[in-house]
Amino acid sequence: MSSGRYPTLFSPLAVGPVTLANRIIMGSMHTELEGRPGASERLAAFYAERASGGAALIITGGCSPNAAGRLSGRGGVLDRRAQLPPHRAVVDAVHAAGGRIALQILHAGRYARHKDLVGASDLPAPINRMTPHVLTEAEVEQTIDEFAACAARTRSAGYSGRRRAVRGTRIRARTLR
Description:
Elements: E1 13-15, E2 18-20, E3 25-26, H1 40-52, E4 57-64, E5 76-77, H2 84-96, E6 100-107, E7 118-119, E8 133-134, H3 137-157, E9 161-166, E10 174-176
Helix pairs in contact: 1-2, 2-3
């Protein structure tokens, strides 16, 4: 499609070494399925349906690099190789439907909704009343290392990319390749 209001919407787009079939991207949304046992089939079907509907790139709901960073008590965590098979199932389903998928690596910080939340200070987030554990410099460094390890695991799982998102910590957010 080369005419109309958005002439390049359906044209391919190269992003680093990845070429997307079009410029339609599904932004991250938290389904609350990410950390539930046995939910990979539902997630695979959910994301594959969006890929088959035309989304060239899907960004998953948040998956934390460690337990303290998960969004809720049931939030997804990717901190061990043993957790890769369900991720591969989701990735394979999206690829089979013609799409690409990136994992959002999310550390919720003081915005987490569980008792083990952490943050840059002991100030609760505006959305909850829980007081976070204040991260020490060593814990910040450890969390950075856990982000890197999680990013490496996304490659092992077959994700086309990753997006780093953080809330209420001393680590900045950005999209990663």
